[in-house]
Amino acid sequence: MFLDDRKMSILRAIIDDYIDTAEPIGSRTIARKHELGLSSATIRNEMADLEDMGFLAQPHTSAGRVPSDKGYRLYVDQLMTTKDLTIEEIQSIKTALEVKINEISQLLRQASIIMSKITKYTSMAVTPEMKKGELKAVQVVPIEPGKALIIVVTNTDSVKNAFVKVSESISADFLIRLSNILNVKLSGLTIEEINLPIIREIEKEMGFSNEILYPILNGVADCINQIDSSEVYLDGTTNIFNYPEFRDVAKAKEFLHILDEKEVLNKLLTRNDDSSRIKIHIGTENELALIKDCSLVTTSYSLGNIVIGTIGIIGPTRMEYPKVISSMNFIREKINQEINRIVGGNTNGSG
């Protein structure tokens, strides 16, 4: 059956009202609230057609209709109108992200917080895997006899450290010399480029046995592994309780269980392709059955033209999509600007 302009207008009105009220929408409500020039009887007939076509559902015989996942999909793709952020919301985002943060992970932490605050849903942000990040500095600091601190810094000013046990015979001068050699050999390399031949070169240059060097080199490797793995930031987990469809305890528990599984969230977010466009998975479109009552909205952020990570919003299918999309687009733009400032500043030696 052809979906003409009249059906489109009625479907848009039903979804807009249902997003606002969470109550099934009847034909009289549409006739009263929206100037469509149609009687409630005509609207009722059109709603019956929309239900037959799979765009609406009727939860109870005497109740009004609610949107189906198919209805939301058509709404998102063709029917919804854009919604601009308010001046206050724009200023809140700028204040949160333009605070001269000098580490990408801190920036993503802030982005997750402000996304949740603006949208009123649960926000997620995945930090980039820094396999292509360059090492900026390596320092080995003596702490006490038999103990040293390894500090590794990347070109994005991500800092990781590890304590290691070393031979008590190792002097502070040795550790200073080793730090200098590590910086010469490793600085400017990506994490992927640090391999066994380079480690062998360091061993040869230092002229010490493997037993002495290995604990320190293992400490460097541990710091690199910390940098290499991405983190998932999560904010607004309890926001879901503000929506009546999640007042069912079992459903709320399922949702919170998913949020506890950081590996699952990482997979959900990193399904986004290598583009900056917004991706929306509605209800049963989600591969994970436990979020079949949710919508997941994701987009990627970039360093230059290279996609390096993902941000996302998860909430009920009755989501205020125009607000979420405009928020995420603006936040992504600010993240991209700040990442390029951070990395650009490091490149210019001012980070």
Descriptive notes:
The chain is an alpha+beta fold. It folds into 3 domains: 5-79, Arc Repressor Mutant, subunit A, CATH 1.10.10.10; 87-128 and 231-347, Beta-Lactamase (2-Layer Sandwich); 131-228, Enolase-like, domain 1. 48% of the residues lie in helices and 18% in strands. It has 12 helices and 10 strands. The chain has helices at residues 5-21, 27-33, 40-52, 69-79, 87-97, 104-119, 172-186, 196-206, 210-228, 249-260, 262-269, 321-347, and strands at 56-57, 66-67, 122-126, 135-144, 147-154, 159-165, 232-235, 279-282, 294-303, 306-316. Strands 7-3-10-9-8 form a 5-stranded antiparallel beta sheet, sandwiched between helices. Helix 1 packs across helix 4 and helix 7 (172-186) packs antiparallel against helix 8 (196-206). The longest helix has 27 residues, at 321-347. It is elongated, with a radius of gyration of 27 Å. The chain starts with a helix and ends with a helix. Residues 346-351 have low confidence and may be disordered.
Within CATH, the superfamily of the largest domain carries the name: GAF domain
CATH level 3 topology of the largest domain:
Beta-Lactamase
- What integer is the average pLDDT? 84
Could you say which structural class the secondary elements and strand pairing correspond to?
alpha+beta
Tally of individual helices: 12
The CATH architecture of the largest domain can be named as 2-Layer Sandwich
Low-confidence stretches: 346-351
- Taken as a percent bin, the fraction of beta residues is 15-25%
Strand order of the largest sheet: 7-3-10-9-8
Largest sheet, strands/sense/barrel: 5 strands, antiparallel
General form: elongated
CATH class bucket of the largest domain? Alpha Beta
* Radius of gyration computed on alpha carbons: 27 Å
Total E-strand runs: 10
